[in-house]
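Summary for the funding panel

The consortium committed to producing paired sequence-structure records for every protein in the target list. Below we show the first two records in order, beginning with the earlier of the two.
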Amino acid sequence: MIQDAVVIVPAYNEADSLDATLSELSQYAARIVLVDDGSEDDTLLRARSHGVIGLRLATNQGYGAAIQIGVRWAIGHLQEPYIMTFDADGQHDPVFLDPMLVPLRQESADYVIGSRFLEGSLSSMSALRRLGSRILSRTTSVVIGQRVTDPTSGMLAFTRNLARIILSPYFPHDYPDADFLIMLSRMGFRLSELPVRIRPSPPGKLSMHAGLIRPLYYTAKMSLSMINLATRWDLKRIRKELESVT
């Protein structure tokens, strides 16, 4: 049972998946905070029925915003030295949570990514999404000078010190993916990846990138953000400023 980390679970209309997800997750993590991102179903009630801490956004504000709210609550109310993120739809396997904390506990990393591709590829992912992920991975790897195989993973672990960056205005509210990794690396944080297993998406479950408009927006936004962050030279100074704020 993990005692030294808070697990943040962002959720949007996940009532059908929560019973199984939280029942399993609670066997591995002692402290769970679910953030209901303005769901239209009874996601929050289902979460609280499992005894986890439940927070709610009045409107749907995006994945990054839900993560930020959960981290803010954890930093302000709890004392665990590490924070993790975990998807609500049942695709993540909590058996990998504790191994992801090892680099943090050994102080060899500040931010750990649970990679779905480190030991192979995701057969359940569409060819188009797999191609997009590969392009993001290679681009990110070149920019930061370190191999990254899964910049869009939602299974993450990081220190309380790094959480200051997540709570800052520099954290993306919608899709904190490859651009955020570039920002962290250029700020001087140490990134690490460990392999995790992903389960098939639940039947009828739509990706946050489903449709036509959202993928186009994501591609344009991510490209511009990555270029901007890759060419900035003030990020280490910004990190020092954020860390100096008590």
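The next record, for a separate protein in the list, is shown here:
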Amino acid sequence: MFNDFTIFLWVLKIGSLINLYFLTNTYMFPAMTVDLYIVVPARILFAVSAYRCLFPVQYKNNVVFHNSPFSSIFLTRLFATFSEISYIYLLSHVIRLLNINHVEWVNFLSWLMVLQVAISQCFVWGAILTGQLVLYYYEELGWAIIFAINTIASAYLYLTIGTLAGTEILIRLNLLFGIVYLPWQFIHLRVLHVDARQSRGTIEKETKVTWSLLKEGLLRCIYEKNQTSDANAWGGLVGLIWMTGYWVTLIPLWVNQIVITFSW
């Protein structure tokens, strides 16, 4: 059943319509009620998620579904870099808005999320350009740290503040996401750790990071496309869950709820 992702990758394109719907809705709110620190990052996320649903790629081994100029590891990662920094900034901004008592360590943690996502971008770019799989592990470890921070800050706010004029739902969503995501992410990290250990004796041991290596990696992520729908190439069941949750369901729905909550 999960040996080939052809049907899933075609169905995934419906996610582009969902994201474009959310994107369009961000322009429907009265201008005077719009918080640009929320709406602009949300628009970036929705636009990039729609693009990724149309032209999905898998960074490891430069796997693509369509042999198209738009199915580019380089372009996708470039767009994703802006998208990921933007939506983590959005989540950190929400924490600061909900921190009505201005607790300094909560604000500090919110900015730490932004710093950590920037660090994770360095790791994923390093993995793409050098082929060292262990860097994907450190990137994903960074995401675990980000959402652990988000969950801790949200738990504190949930326990210490009263009513927030209808925004309590965002704290509950933060907590619910943390409860669901963090155990899954530890499983994901386990898979990445196994992959990294298996590659250590072949690729990483022989690889020294040089400008020549980085140039080769850059050219490879721009031009190389391995077109396939094989499930293993797309990360198997973990990859399927990740693409669906990140590009179509959990993250877009969450961000859309944030936009709605703060735009009326």
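Regarding this second record: The domain at 6-262 is CATH 1.20.1070 (Rhopdopsin 7-helix transmembrane proteins). The chain is about 75% helix and 0% strand.
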